[in-house]
């Protein structure tokens, strides 16, 4: 049987007439003469009500045995509803595709996020996670649209790498050696050298920017950071554009334009899910998204931002100090209380940034930027890259890195070096922002965090 989705029926301006729908039973109410079944196929937040008359074939054997969670196929006539929704279906036939055991865990009651994480294979069937993961799909599509419309080339950078982009050493080792032979020489391992899961596709992306001008990557990244906060995961996705012939000002402008574009796309194309999320997850969500979509972004240097924070009357849990990274509470103060809009902070101290960022003329700061949004804090981080061969070599040495291991990266400065810049957008941070969901584990289909790699 061909299938019409629940969304197609409920959003139709005219009755589709005869149709076949397939999905999972959300609720069922029986009476003597008929049954009311609510069915959902994941295409819509709303369910389709199906009225099953007791006279249809197999009513006693199939309909009465149906439980919540069962999958069914129903053929019938779509008619105007007498209830809240516009359309309902009068069943002509019903087939049980797979019944559900009595211990189906998603009953008609509230479930905590912690419990739902323990059944991540079933949680997409809930209203909350259906909305979240439809949003995830839409935002991925919108990201590709944004860059493709601007002539960027999509590049797949490697997941297995020998380079530590951030220099922090928090990487997962990839090896074929077992526990008893891990102490063997690296040249005996599969790749003949130490290899890791990537923390960023940036460095490899730069090689393509230095040939194709404007590129972007969008893929999984990994960090072996023993962090249990609501903002960190061990596996996450990053969007990383790189632009040749580009400076920090252009880099900041593109990041700000991208955030506005993505928020506007969510408001335009995910209205039903946003209304639900705004009602049950974050009551200020819609107002905040509309605010970001329409307001200009503020810009402030790191030095001025620290001075502003120090002069504020706000009592912070973490002390504000020049030469230290801003904490989430500092970032949110800037966006939510002082400027009351998104803020881009730029020109950070050399000491707290990686080796590849371009050193400014003051020799104290680098051409780096972080884009901060209300409710989250940092959502984008980027910089102009160091294109000067002698300065890059000095930076590599200063960070105790091996120039030999980064020979290919240094080569980009030897063969036609150009000013170039880029940034990274944490996809899950974006999703937290546009859904109002406060824990990163709840915007990832199957979260990977310290001590947990289920499913």
Protein topology:
Elements: H1 6-10, E1 18-30, E2 34-40, E3 48-53, H2 59-63, E4 71-80, E5 87-98, H3 113-118, H4 127-149, E6 153-154, E7 160-161, E8 173-174, E9 195-197, H5 202-212, E10 214-222, E11 235-244, H6 248-269, H7 271-280, H8 285-294, E12 298-301, H9 302-311, H10 328-338, E13 343-349, E14 365-373, E15 377-384, H11 389-398, H12 407-414, E16 420-426, H13 427-435
Parallel strand pairs: 3-5, 6-10, 12-13
Antiparallel strand pairs: 1-2, 1-4, 2-3, 4-5, 7-9, 8-9, 10-11, 11-16, 13-14, 14-15, 15-16
Helix pairs in contact: 4-6, 4-7, 4-13, 6-8
**Rg of Cα set:** 26 Å
CATH superfamily of the largest domain: Bira Bifunctional Protein, Domain 2
Question: What is the overall number of helices?
Answer: 13
Intertermini distance? 32 Å
Q: What can you tell me about this protein's structure?
A:
Helix 4 (127-149) crosses helix 6. The two termini are 32 Å apart. Strand 2 and strand 3 (48-53) form a beta hairpin. The relative contact order is 0.11. An 8-stranded mixed β-sheet has the order 6-10-11-16-15-14-13-12. It is elongated, with a radius of gyration of 26 Å. It has helices spanning 6-10, 59-63, 113-118, 127-149, 202-212, 248-269, 271-280, 285-294, 302-311, 328-338, 389-398, 407-414, 427-435; strands at residues 18-30, 34-40, 48-53, 71-80, 87-98, 153-154, 160-161, 173-174, 195-197, 214-222, 235-244, 298-301, 343-349, 365-373, 377-384, 420-426. By secondary structure, the chain is an alpha+beta fold. Helices cover 31% and strands 24% of the residues. The chain has 2 domains: 6-98, Nucleic acid-binding proteins (OB fold (Dihydrolipoamide Acetyltransferase, E2P), Beta Barrel); 123-442, BirA Bifunctional Protein, domain 2, CATH 3.30.930. The protein has 13 helices and 16 strands.
